[in-house]
Amino acid sequence: MDFKMEHGFIAQKYENNLERMLMIRYGELGLKGKNKSQFINRLIKNIQYALRNVTSKPVVSTWGRIMIPCDWNVNEIVDQLQKVFGIYSMSPVVKVDKDMEIIKETAWQVLQEAMQKGGTFKVESRRSDKTFPVISPEISKQVAEYIFDHCDESFEADMHDPENMLNIEVRDEGAYIYSEVITGAKGMPVGTGGKAVLMLSGGIDSPVAGFMTMKRGVVIEAVHFHSFPFTSERAKEKVIDHCRVLSRYANAPIKLHVVHFTEIQKAIHEKCSADYGITIMRRFMFRIAEKIAQKEHALAIVTGESVGQVASQTLESMVAINDVTKMPVLRPLVGFDKEEIMERAEKIGTYDISIRPYEDCCTVFLPPHPKIRPSIKESRRLEALLPVDELIEEALAKTEVLKISI
Known about the structure:
By secondary structure, the protein is an alpha/beta fold.
C-alpha cells in the first residue's frame, strides 16, 4: 500500500466513503454566549481571506468546529492558518460514515500512517451525537481491539504517556478520525475588538506591540514619524516591511500613516531645553496619533513602551506624555523585559527587519542626558514657546498614507 505523509493525512485510496478535511477549534470564542456567532463569522471571514490564494474550498461551520475540505495542499493551508488569530488548534482529519466497521478500519489506517515504525498509542473517543448507539468508552475499546487484531508487536498501548493519541469524534454530520493536533495562533479574531492606531517605529518593540494588540481582535492602523533628511528612506522601508509582516496576522492590508516630523523636531531642538527634548517630542507624537485616530474612527493609541526601558518610559515620563491626550493608551509590553520582547519579535518575523542599521526619528537630536522624571508643568511651559497647533497641522498636511499588504 502506497502511503505519503502530509500533516497526518493518508495519501491513499480508500474503499470507504470518506473526506479529507482540516478541523479547526476556536477555544475561547465558544464562551461568548449570545454574541458567539459574530465572533465565529469574523473568524470564518479571516480564514477565507488567509486562504484566498491557496484553496477555493468552502469553509463550513459546525457545532464547536470549523471544517475545511482539503486536497493535498494541507501543509500550505496549515501554514497560512497558523497566522490567523482566533484559531486555538487544528487537526487534519478523515471524515467517514458513522459505522463502527468503517470507523475501526479507518482508525487503523490513520494510526499506521502516523506511526510507520510502531510505538505506543492510546485511543480517545468523544461522542457528541448521543443518538449514535455506541458510547465513547466502547468506541475506544472496539477500535483498540481491532488494532491489536491487525498490528504486530511494534505497536503497544499506553494509557498514561502515549507517543501518539488516536482521536475519534462522532458528531452529527459524521465521524472524524485524526492523530495530530497543531497549535494555532489563539487569541481573538482580528476585527472583533475595535480599532486602534499603533505608533510604529523601526525598532524591535512596537511591531511586537502591534502583534499582541491584534491577537486580542483589534484592527490596527500604523502611524510612523519620519524625519527626512535626518532619517533615510531606508528607515521608512523598515517600517513598511514591518507592516507587511503584521498584515499576515491582520488578514488584511495595514494602513500606514507616514507623518512628516522634520519641522517639529527642528523646532523642539531650537526652542526647548535638551533634557526635555524626548518628552516634548513624544507629546507631539501623541497629539498627532490622537488626531489620526479620531479621523480613522479608532478608539485607542498603542505603543511599544515597557516600564523603565528607556528615559521616556518611566512612569513619570508616561504621565507627562499622556497629559496631551484623552484617548486610552494601550501598552501591551508594559511588563516585558527586552529579552522577552526580542524572543517574540524573532518568533513573529520582525526581529531581522528591526535590527537593520537604519535609525528612526527617535534618535535625531538625542540628548546625552534626557530627563527621566519630567513634570507636566515644565513640559507645558516649554511647549508654550512653540507654535504647537501650526506645527501639527503642517505635519498632518504632509502625511503620506499607504496601504501595505503581503
